[in-house]
Amino acid sequence: MRFVFVFILIFFSLASCTNINFLLDDVVDTDFLKNKTAVYLSGWDNPVLKEVFFIKLGEASDNRFLLTAEATQKQIKRSVDENQVAKKIDYKIIINYSLNDVEKKCTNILNSQTSNFSFTPKSSGYNFASDVLFENLLKETISENLNSFINFANSALKSQKCLNEN
Fold first, then answer.
1. DSSP secondary structure letters along 54-120
2. pTM confidence score
3. Alpha carbon separation from 109 to 81, 99, 126, 136, 146 (Å, rounded)
């Protein structure tokens, strides 16, 4: 009797789960720039900048767009010690973006994004992994800057309705 009850319970459990649609399968890709954009970086030459752009935009297998980004970085010593060593430095990263459609179906998208962060290079004379911390802060800041532009560009491309969705 128990065997029949367990068999019926398993049968109804499996039968009730046959028409489940997972949301991940139905998601429409709204990132129009991923793997479709050739990137040209100018200005501030930093390997972290190139790495973040490659991670976010991928390798251009379909050269649909050309993104030109001019990056500048400014340092402001906010707190200076007696021996003129900076205790705290403010960084300002400005990236001017220009997105061009190679097929000339969309208008050019121009945008400028500014990001800021502060960094304390040393802690009371000791340098405990401050280079790694600085690189992580820089990656996070550049990534947020690029994400802001990607969101702006995707909404502009979606509103222009000039994309070939085929």
1. HHHH---SS--EEEEEEEEEEEEEEEE-TTS-EEEEEEEEEEEEEEEETTS-S--EEEEEEEEEEE-
2. 0.70
3. 44, 5, 46, 29, 14
Q: What is the pLDDT of residue 131?
A: 74
User: Which stretch of DSSP H or E encloses residue 41?
Assistant: strand 37-43
> For residue 10, is pLDDT > 70?
yes
- CB within 8 Å of 92: residues ≥ 6 apart: 73, 74, 76, 114, 115, 116
Side-chain-facing half-sphere of 25: CA atoms under 13 Å: 3
* Closest alpha carbon to 87 in 44, 118, 46, 45: 118
Indicate whether 97 pLDDT > 90. Answer: yes
Report which DSSP code applies to 129: S
Look at residue 56 and tell me whether its pLDDT is greater than 80. Answer: yes
- Laid out side by side, the sheet with 65-80 consists of 37-43, 65-80, 86-101, 109-119
Q: Residue 8: how many CB atoms within 10 A of its CB?
A: 10
Asked whether residue 28 carries a pLDDT value surpassing 60, the answer given is: no
Residue 62: the pLDDT is: 78
Q: Are 162 and 106 in contact (CB under 8 A)?
A: yes
